[in-house]
Amino acid sequence: MTRDPLIALRPWESPEVTSWGRLPMCAVDRRSGAMPLDGRWRFQLLPAPDSPVTGDWASQHVPGAWTLQDTWDLPQYTNVRMPFDTFPPAVPAADPTGVYERDVRIPAAWAGRRIVLQVGAAESVLLVHVDGRPVGVSKDSHLAAEFDLSGVLRPGERSTLRLTVVKWSDATHLEDQDQWWHGGITRSVLLYTTDPLHLADVTVRARRSGELRVDCRVRHAAGALPEGWYISGEVDGRTLTQDEDFDRANAEDERVSAFLGEARLLTTVPEVRTWTAETPELYELTVRLHRADGTVADTSHHRVGFRDVEIVGRDLLVNGERVFIRGVNRHDFHPLTGRTVTYDDMRADLVVLKRFGFNAIRTAHYPNDPVLYDLADELGLYVVDEADIESHDHAHEIADDPRYLNAFVDRVSRMVLRDKNHPSIIVWSLGNESDYGANHDAAAGWLRRHDPTRPLQYEGAAKLDWADPGLASDIACPMYAPIEDCVAHALSGKQTKPLIQCEYSHAMGNSNGTLADHWAAIEATPGLQGGFIWEFWDHGILQRVSDGRPAGRAGAGLHGNGVAAPGHRWAYGGDFGETVHDGAFIADGVVLPDRTPKPVMYEHREIAAPLRVECYKHEGIVLRNHQHFRGLDWLTGRWELALADGRTLSAPAVLPDLRPGETAAVPLPFELPRDGGEAWLTLRVSTAEDLPWAPPGTEVCAPQVRLRLAPRTVAEPAADRPVQVDAEGLLVHPLLIAAPTLSLWRAPTDNDELGGLAPRWRAWGLDALVRKVVSVQRDASRVTVLAEYAGTVGVVRHRQVFTPVESGILVDEQAELPEEFDDVARVGSVFETVAGLDLLEWFGQGPWESYPDRSAGAPVGHHRVPVDELFTPYLRPQESGGRHGVRHFTLSGPDATGLGVVLDEPRQVSVTRYRAEDLTGAAHHDELKPRSGCVVHIDAAHRGLGTASCGPDTSSPYLVPPGVHRWSWTLRSL
Ligand code: GAL
Ligand code: MG
């Protein structure tokens, strides 16, 4: 039996205990000037918190999860279900517990000062000992804990600091977010000192009128405050004045306290430059606490953004404007270090978001690393700051469990106390997927009193009834609501709150179909204001294939093209030997695990375009400034005219001077050539100046209009050349190693699998249709082949007519899908080429991957991409690499020989190194062997992608119906 009281009291199974010996959270940042304690610590991993600590020490890097640093405890992924089946607040007896130790020498110069230990984050319970003496306990894996160790650490002497981190606890039941389970100290540890007389908190309120109010709380380590202390402050060199009304009112009400000092400073900044996500203007504020003799006892620095947030009617307004929320959900994540992220990592995340048109982040589902908010202030992103509460598996039991009441209020209030001064935060969130109970209202009550300046949201309350989400939500913030439901709500006459989806458009695998339709509805419907895509990251962990271990921080590094380093793969649920897991559901972000943007990012960028080409009228091109707050002077443009005959003309664009929302007609920049066929005009818009998130010349959007339709194609005359087919009616061609056959199957996307489509397609036998030739007829040089493709429940009749024409062979196809095959993945032809054709050039949408319901961001033009770069390495191999609206293409080798295809109309085409069945059978990319030739699909119809892995499927215009499908194409040799 241990004699350590911290262990004996088993705080890890006491939800009422949220901390012991911990200092109140505040917004005074002590990171600069502190003594960092990051680096290597002695470490041992015990099987349970009450197991004896041995003399057997290894070491670990702090900050970092031990699950990624070569211990026996590996990462595990579960979504809703808990990794163990004990009921809250209990946890299993087997409970990995990391003991971290290091010696610290306290400088003699710290004598007489207050000494504070800050542990940035520990999962999930932190116990603190100094020289064997218990000094503190803290819970909440995503907020720092501070302990006043002034009486415990002795200046000039050496002490041993022990941080014990218990992995499973009552608090784990509140941290059941959909992510990897880890253990360890995941943010920095440091010691800082202050004068005994110190700033206990600073609250900044800065309004768009330029009014600035700074509230300071002052304490003294000894309790009673010395006489005569006072506060001063400056904002960008402008001195703030003491609010005498505040002092007088406090004095009259006898609120002046001997041990809690309160002071308020005021000023108004004239002609203030206001903060918005588009214009992230920050002012430097310095607050000083003085002793009676004028000397400075403490200083606090803040960056202030002057802005207002309010809800008026059903609109969320920033500085009076109804801004669109183009958001994404973001976890703290890195493929080598898990939840430990550096300044550079976070900056890189936000830079990617800014470059792709996002303007908002929801910190799903816990307060992110504090640096994130500094960066959001600086780069310009609105933030919904979310408390670390997700009791998903036991949501209903916990929401009203009074034993957890304290934890709810603790988690919400400490987040707000830490983050309240960030202008980027425009909304607070009570957490995620935790039902709705009295515990939420308790936290909401505290929050509304403490910070009346920001709205509050909570999906668990808002989804019960969008019209009346109770005390806990000012915003209707459902998740994955179908577009039609959102529009219907906005039109119902019952909407009372802004509708901003907290999660929508689930980005798992090849996904985000209908994103543009969402936005068309949002922009057209008053009451709809946007939402947060689920989510930013694909949480693949870099894993060595040889031994199945996480590569870790010293790992193989990241290549930056989405592909794991050789000998490695991106691990998802189940890959670390876990038996309880939720597979690839952890990989549902808009970037791959090395932050390579998935093609959906280009779709988003275009949807978010700050400058729109509205339409083409006789007077010219109408441009619209589609921003909320700024002009176009930060942008520069270039016109591009793509003609079907292969020409691309280009000319500089002069952007008009437009205020937000304004339009102007500009003349057509080119004399449209008479010939050349179909013509598309694109405005390539890029940054004109060096921005914190983009160098000049970074493309921001490429809006496009069609100037001329394709002329009706005139059939090529038949040529007198034989077409060769074999006894099975299969085309024989020197460039093809597999003749064109009918394909109704695509390697199921995650949406196809989890949305229940792929299981249906398999049941119909579409993955293994059996082809039987029915007849081969020759009529002069034309060959007609009839074939049947049998599934388990129906037969498709397929006709191919091969006609030699001047340029090559015209292939005219027809497939008749029986009624049973309602809603299939594709109807089209598939063939395989000889090796050596490694470059695809096409006229159509591109250059990036696009699908019928995700093609708004891929302008029509002439594109060329090496075949090996066409494919997107989605974590679980699946349909990938498609290009929408292809009119014609060539596949060529270095000597420019190869094959060319001209399509009857814009079609979905894909060229990859994999057959659909290669991809279908693989769980990871390292299992795949690229073929040397190309697998080419030409689809008469291709099903949209939708988002059915979590949320709505695609909508009806993007479905592939049964019945007759016809398509034709001409194959030629180059
Ligand atoms: C939501 C949840 C997220 C994530 C997502 C699916 O229900 O809030 O945390 O699980 O679904 O990927
Ligand atoms: Mg959940």
From TrEMBL:
What this protein catalyses is:
Hydrolysis of terminal non-reducing beta-D-galactose residues in beta-D-galactosides
PROSITE patterns per the UniProt record, alphabetical:
GLYCOSYL_HYDROL_F2_1 (PS00719), GLYCOSYL_HYDROL_F2_2 (PS00608)
- For this protein, the Enzyme Commission number is 3.2.1.23
> In the UniProt record, does the keyword Hydrolase occur?
yes
By its UniProt entry, which InterPro entries does this protein fall under?
A: B-gal_small/dom_5, Bact_Beta-galactosidase, Beta-gal/glucu_dom_sf, Gal_mutarotase_sf_dom, Galactose-bd-like_sf, GH, GH-type_carb-bd, Glyco_hydro_2
Keyword Cell wall biogenesis/degradation among UniProt keywords: no
**Keywords assigned by UniProt, alphabetized:** Glycosidase, Hydrolase
One MF annotation (Gene Ontology) recorded for this entry: hydrolase activity
Q: Which Pfam families match?
A: Bgal_small_N (PF02929), Glyco_hydro_2 (PF00703), Glyco_hydro_2_C (PF02836), Glyco_hydro_2_N (PF02837), LacZ_4 (PF16353)
Enumerate the spans annotated as Beta galactosidase small chain/ domain.
Answer: 713-972
According to its UniProt record, which protein family does this protein belong to? Belongs to the glycosyl hydrolase 2 family.
Please identify the protein, giving its name as recorded: Beta-galactosidase
